[in-house]
Amino acid sequence: MNRIEPPPQQHQRMAQSALAAPDARPERSFHGLAVSAGVAIGPVFGTTEPEAVIARHKIQASDIGAESGRLEAAIVQSRKQLAKLRAKLALLPEESQSQIAPLIDAYIQMLGPSRLLRGVRARIAETLLSAETAVLTEAAAIAAAIMAQAEPGLPAEDRAGLQRRADEIGEIGRRLVRNLTRSPFRSFAGLPEGSILVAESLRPADAALLDPSRLAGVVTDEGGADGHTAVMLRALGVPAVLGATGLAHAMQPGDIAVVDGSAGTVTLNPSATTMTAAKRSVTAFARERQRYAKLRRLPAVTMDGEPVELQANLELPVELPLIVQSGAVGIGLLRTEFLFMNRETVPDEATQAESYRTIVEAMNGDPVTIRVLDWGGEKEIEALTLAGVVPEIADTNPALGLRGIRLLLRCPDLLETQLSAILRASMSGPVRVLLPMVTTVGEVRAAREIYERVARRLRRRGERIPEKLPPMGIMIETPGAALSADALALEADFFAIGTNDLTAYTLAVDRAESDVAALYDPMHPAVLRLVQFAAEAALRMRMPVSICGELAAAPRLTPLLLGLGIRSLSMNASAVPRVKQMVRSVQIDACVRFARRVMEQGDADRIRALVDGFGKDV
Ligand code: PEP
Ligand code: MG
Predict the structure, then answer these.
(1) Is the CB–ligand 1 distance for residue 255 below 6 Å?
(2) Residue 461 DSSP SS3
(3) What domain count does the chain have?
(4) Does ligand 1 come within 6 angstroms of the Cβ of 477?
(5) How far is CA 241 from CA 87, 230, 269, 343, 575, in A?
(6) CB of residue 549 inside a 6 A radius of ligand 1
(7) Measured from the CA of 337, which atom of ligand 1 is nearest?
(8) Does residue 503 sit within a domain?
(9) Could you tell me the CATH number of the domain that includes residue 32?
(10) Rounded distance, CA 172 to CA 163, Å?
C-alpha cells in the first residue's frame, strides 16, 4: 500500500502578512453561500484569468463571417455576465454599490457602440485577424493611445485616471478573449501561501488545480451551494463562501479578509474586534476537528447495533490522505472527471488504469465505487472539446443535453477505454462500476453489453481481470430514474442516489446558479419522496442502495435517511466523523418513526423544523 501523509491543517494557517498592522481601510462585510466549513484569515489574492492560449492569429477572407459571428457571440455573453453582476449589486450596502457600479457601467458601455468594438470589427474584416487577436491588438492600441496622453509633469491624480481607463480597456479585452477561447487551465502558481483566493467565478476545472495545503480560503461572486465547484472545495477542506456578490470588485491588493465558510460571510479589512473573534473561531474549529478525529477508529453502528456503511466521495487524488484520516470505509463515489480536466488530450487506458490502481491500493482492501465519466452540465472538459468529441459551442441547455451515460453511449470508445482501465485496476482491490445520469433501462443494458465486450477483449489480450466482473450500478439522479427505480433495479446491481442532481432536476433549479440558490432545497418533499421511492425499490429487491449526494453529508439528516432504510452513505471526507457521531447516537426504531412523520409533510420548512428538532420532540 502507498503511504499517505496527512496534509497540514489548512484551517489554522494564517499568512504572516495577515498579522501585520490593521489596514486603514474600513471594515466591510459580504454575504454569500456557506459551502465549505472553517474560518480562514489571510491576504486576498485576486485571480485574473491566465493569458489565453490563442490557437489562430490570422484567418482567410472566407472566414470573416464566421469570425465576426464568434466575436458578436462573445460580446453578447460578456454583456450578459456584466448585466447579471450589475443587477446583483443591489444586494450590497449602498457604499459598496457606489464604488463598484461605475466600474461595471464603464465595462458595459465599452461593449456597446464603442471605439474598441469598432476597431476590433475592422481588424477582423480588413486585416484578417482572428477575433481573439483583433481584440487583444485593438485593446493594446487603445490603452497605449490613452497612456500616450500622460505627458511628463502631469499631476499624479490625472496620470492615475488615465491608467484606470487603460486598465478598463485591458480588462474588457480579457473578458472578451476569455469568452472567445473559453480559456482553459487557469494557473494558480503565483498564489502566495496562506492567501484567500478571490474570483468572480471558479469553474470545477479551476478548483481542481488548487493546492489545499497552500490556500487559506476561497471566495467567489458566482456559484451555487451544491455545484461542482462547491463540491470540490468541500472535498479539499478549504473554507469557502460562494456567491458573495461584489467582493471580487471591491477588494484591493493588500486587503486582509476573514472568510467564515460555516456562516457564509466574508469581512474585508477586519477591525481588531472582528479579528479577535475570527482567531477564536479558527481555534474552536481546530479543536472540533481534534474531537472528531477520536471517532476515527470507532465503528459506525447505531445504539441498537445496526451497522451503517460510511464512505467518502473522491473528486481529486489530493483528497486521499483526508479520506484515509476520516475513518471512511472505502470510496462510495469516485468522480473520474478530474482525470480528464486541465489537459489537452483524453487520457489513455494505461494512464487511467494507473490512476485507479493507485486509489484502489490506497484504500487497502476497502471498496471503491468508480463512476465513469460524467461530462456535461457545468462540467466542461477541454480535452473532449479539443478531441472533437463534444461541440465547442455548448448546447442551449447543457444540463438536459448529452450528459453522463448519454455521451458515453454515443462515443463508446470513451466508455470502453474507461471500463478496460477500471477492470485492470480491479485486480488491486474491490471495485464497483457506476453509471452517471441514467434515465432508461435501455442505457443500462447497452452499457452492460459494452462492459462484457470489454471484458472479453481484455481476456483475449491476456490481461488479468477478475473472473466475476465487478458489480455495475447506476446513479439515481433524475426524477425519471427515481420513478422507474423498480424497473431499473432489474438491470442494475446497485443504486447510488445522487441527491444533488436529483434536487436540481426535480425542482428545475440550476445547482450552480446563485440567482436561484434559495430555491435549491434537497429537503423539498418532492425530492425526499423520490429518494424514498428509489430506496424502497432497491430494498424490495435486496439490492444495495446508497446516497452519495451532499444530503448524505448532513448529520441532521442522518436519522431521516436511516429511517428510510438507507444503510450506506458516501460524503466528503470531512463530514464522515460528524455523521458517524450521529449514527452512534440514534436507535433505528426512533429513526423509522421519525421518517414516517417527516414523509407525511408537504412543506420543506416544516420538514426542516422537524429535522432540526429530532430527539427534542418538536
Ligand atoms: C449527485 O448528482 O448527487 C452526484 C453525486 O453527482 P455529481 O455531484 O457529481 O453530479
Ligand atoms: Mg450528479
Answers:
(1) no
(2) coil
(3) 3
(4) yes
(5) 20, 9, 17, 27, 17
(6) yes
(7) 9
(8) yes
(9) 3.50.30.10
(10) 14
Domain residues for the domain of 207 are 8-49+188-271
- Pick the last residue of a domain from 256, 271, 286: 271
The last residue of a domain, from among 181, 198, 226: 181
Say what the pLDDT of residue 11 is: 36
Q: Mark whether 548 is an active-site residue.
A: yes
Kindly state if the Cβ of 548 falls inside 6 Å of ligand 1.
yes
In a domain? residue 280: no
Closest CA to ligand 1's atom 9: 335
- Number of Cβ within 10 Å of residue 90's Cβ equals 10
In a shared domain, residues 170 and 257: no
11, 228, 249, 524: the active-site residue: 228
Whether the CA torsion 153, 155, 158, 162 is positive or negative: it is positive
Same domain membership, residue 217 and residue 193: yes
Band of residue 253 on the pLDDT scale cut at 50, 70, 90: confident
- Nearest residue (CA) to ligand 1, atom 6: 498
What is the average per-residue pLDDT within 572-600? 96
Is residue 546 in contact with ligand 1, taking CB distance under 6 Å?
A: no
Residue with cell 487511467: 352
Query: Which atom, in ligand 1's list, is nearest to the CA of 231?
Result: 8
238 and 329 fall within a common domain: no
Select which of 11, 524, 548, 591 is catalytic. 548
Active-site residue 249, yes or no?
A: no
Task: List strand residue ranges (DSSP E) for 170-224, in order.
Answer: 195-199, 215-220
**Selected residue with higher pLDDT from 48 and 70:** 70
In angstroms, rounded to a whole number, what is the distance separating the alpha carbons of residues 233 and 36?
A: 6
